[in-house]
């Protein structure tokens, strides 16, 4: 999913069913980041793994559980 704010900022979200996420899994988000430059603010790969992981500049893997763990906050 690609989300664009009215001011032109862009974020990308991918969802993976696996628990192991690596740099290969963010290659499309990295290409988008490189193409858009500063307009690209964040890329996230949601996955079924238990921990968050930085995968490069403005790229992260996050457990999909963050979606419902933060709802009660």
How do the SSEs run, as a string of H and E?
Answer: EEHEEEH
Tell me the strand order in the biggest sheet.
Answer: 1-2-3-5-4
Low-confidence stretches: none
Distance between the termini: 25 Å
Radius of gyration: 12 Å
Secondary-structure-based class equals alpha/beta
How many distinct domains?
Answer: 1
Major sheet, described briefly?
5 strands, mixed
Number of strands: 5
Task: Give the helix tally.
Answer: 2
Helix percent band: 10-25%
Q: Average pLDDT, to the nearest integer?
A: 92
SS strand fraction: 35-45%
Principal-axis shape = globular
Describe, in plain words, how this protein is organized in 3D.
- The chain has helices at residues 27-36, 66-69, and strands spanning 2-4, 10-15, 40-47, 53-56, 59-63.
- It is α/β, with parallel strands linked by helices and 73 residues long.
- It has one domain.
- A 5-stranded mixed β-sheet has the order 1-2-3-5-4, covered by helices on one side.
- Strand 2 (10-15), helix 1 (27-36) and strand 3 form a beta-alpha-beta unit.
- It is globular and about 30 Å long.
